[in-house]
DNA sequence: GTTCTGACA
DNA sequence: TGTCAGAA
């Protein structure tokens, strides 16, 4: 199928499909005209890309992870040996990013708290670890 | 008519 | 990511 049908089937814009290819996440064949040709399997791949993107992985990481996952109906299932370990590292990376954001939030709370009355933002409640 | 690449917001 | 231009 060509890009238009692919976009309709996946719900992902043509622009994004081209971007995924540029990032090495998808490698559709080409017609003599230069038009991209996607396979049915590519539809599942795009679904996996969306899932991994939602999980906070970068396109570079997804490119490495993609060939190591199996279609598990609704989601994905890890296949390669070192995959789970790498995903754990990604999780730590995200945890550190959250810490940094919390610190930034704290800084702003301090600044806001020093301003005019009634403009302070309530402190957030702690979130449970996963 | 549909898609491609490159560029800009 | 969306959108537009110019070419095929």
UniProtKB/TrEMBL annotation:
Instruction: State whether keyword NAD applies.
Output: no
The HTH merR-type domain covers which part of the protein? 1-68
Segments forming a coiled coil: none
Q: Which UniProt keywords apply?
A: DNA-binding, Repressor, Transcription, Transcription regulation
Q: Which Pfam families match?
A: MerR_1
PANTHER family in the record: MERR-FAMILY TRANSCRIPTIONAL REGULATOR, REDOX-CYCLING DRUG-SENSING TRANSCRIPTIONAL ACTIVATOR SOXR
Q: Under which name does UniProt file this protein?
A: MerR family transcriptional regulator
